[in-house]
Please model this.
Amino acid sequence: QALRELRERGTCTPYEKEYVRRDGTRVPVFLADTMLPGPGEQIAAFALDLTARKQTEAALQREFAMRSMLLENLPCIAMVLRKGTREIVFLNEAARQAGRAPGKTCYGTRARSDPCPFCLAPKVWATNQPRKLEVECQGKHYEGRWVPLTDDLYVHYIFDITARKQTEAAVRNREGVLQQIFDLLPVGLWFADKDGKLLRGNP
Model:
């Protein structure tokens, strides 16, 4: 195809090709050819060694595969989004089950026309620092985390912390009951540290 384009137009669309060295190693190159004026078919070719770029691409693919595997197995909603647009690039099974979808915005999948008012993503874009926030929604408690990933991507985690909040409330309630019992004791009771400093006492 390149030779046909050279004969028809004098140049061809740049393309990639692999050459094999004598030792058997392969060298990926980027080629651009042009036909030289004059009798016969004389071709000038420009070749760029793509080895370093291909190695970098392979390393990035491995890293992305590893991160994808980690996200997939997290016990929470996890999404990789584009900065600025909040478009979902990658998501795990928990996010899919919650109705999120690639190519959609994180808020659009929740039947919203604008971002959630508590969203801290813009602060992450501006500072490149992770943020977290606890919110209550429809009777459940969630912890949201926004973490920068690359120059144009960030990760959004959503943890359901309802059970933890219920446990904390139960502990506070039990502490309140114990405090009432302590306050109603018919005898004086005080607690002090090892130096004799009074820490707590009932009325």
